[in-house]
Amino acid sequence: MTTQAPAQVPEGFSGSLPEFIVLATLIELGKRPGVDFNYQSALMGGRLEKGGVIVDFLFSDPPDLGISVLGEYFHYGFGPEAKARDIMAREQLAALGITLIFIDESDVLSDPRFYVQAALRYRDHSKLTRG
Fold it and tell me: Using CA atoms, how far apart are residues 119 and 112, in angstroms rounded to an integer?
């Protein structure tokens, strides 16, 4: 049974609506925040260090998976530099043994369950990956 996606981010949630929808979908699929995954994990210094990375969802189950939601405005609207940062983040995490899967905002809004389940199976359908 799939719940209807909220029209806005609940008060107190620090992320975007697509990130909240992914969070709600992960919980619906049986994943537990703080146990199976953490939201907004800073690696290699996060935003405070050059070359640092923020992973929207970093998993301990499975231990080698990260998921990041790519918003149209910040990830595709800022041109090739933003895309290059996302690709570099994926490569940096790969060096740590973590597979970073991207989910596009438009996909989250259209069919969150399908795209989150695909990401949990290490399948990336994002425009960034498709080219």
Answer: 10
Helix, strand, or coil (residue 52): coil
Nearest to 56 by CA among 11, 18, 12, 84: 18
Structure tokens at 93: 């995490």
- pLDDT at 1 (0 to 100): 46
Closest CA relative to residue 68, chosen from 130, 9, 10, 128? 128
- 17, 9 Cβ separation under 8 angstroms: yes
Average pLDDT over residues 88-96: 87
* Residue 35 amino acid letter: V
The domain of 56 spans 42-130
Main-chain dihedrals φ then ψ at residue 46, nearest 5 degrees: 55, -140
Domain count, the chain: 1
N-term to C-term CA, the chain: 33
